[in-house]
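hi! just following up on the protien thing from before. the input was this:
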Amino acid sequence: MKTIPENALAKLLVPNESYEYFEGHHDHPFQDKARNFEVVNAWWLAEAAFLAYAWPEFVEHSFKNAGLPHCRYFSSLSTQCYVAHNEDFVIVAFRGSEISERAGTEKRDLRYIIADWVANSRTYLVDSGREGLVHQGFKEALDEVWEREYLEAYIDEVRKQGGRSRTVWFTGHSLGAALATLAADRYADEVAGLYTFGSPLVGDTAFANAFRVDHYRFVNNDDVVTKVPFFGIRFDGVPFPGLYRHVGPTKYLDHEGHLIDNPRLMVRLKDNLRRFSKNMLDYLRYLGMRLRLRVLSTDPQDLELPQNFLTDHAPIYYAVYLWRQIQRNRRV
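and the predicted 3d structure came back as:
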């Protein structure tokens, strides 16, 4: 049973080089032929979405160690994506928003960070190209790689390579979850499954109603990103306000990391209240640590932060909580 990481910046910030991705994968292989929800697949894809924040050499090495020897990187100003595959299946993992400059051989400067947040902020609802309206910034970010960088063509190629018919799985965290949702909608009938983590809302009611891909949308407790944007301005002719609506059933991770299917509103409110009570003690402890910081000169990244709607968004929690859920299921 993996321990739940403390709410320290060093643990929550991405990319995280100290985390051992896909640890234990030999005992819990990916179920590539699954037609329904599989928690082991949820864990694999949460790990892939978390890993997607890292630079190509690190990602390729991690996928290879997990039994996915082939990995290709797609990149544009506001979109990065990895396509990894073996003889049986393909994982398409989109990276979420960057919040700090990246080290490694592929250095990322301030331009890329700004581009991500510009994409996030363009909340106008525009024609999806299929059915319904979608977030303008997300759609344009996907357009950068889908056809211009031949991402769709490459997925087609590896899916059929060597005369095989590999299953294709889409995933992502945060902005990456939104891009994975739009990409899966475009790839449609060839998608075996879509698992997203901490996803913002992507489209309107018409888009959600027309969505046909098997999708499992994970929400960790009070993750604030899963609640935005609430509405945007529609541009399908005459501009007027339009509401966003989530796609796919909710897979909710409560304050202790237990997985609950489509919880009622009251269940979530009670869970948030329990966590709020715990946080009162955490905030007092945090203030005490801040006072000690001046005396002990502790590295600020080592300070444990109070659990809240921002820390709930960290991709490491999605990966660790789902691993713990696998272990609980084994005990039943």
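The first strand starts at residue 70 and ends at 75.
The radius of gyration is 20 Å.
cheers
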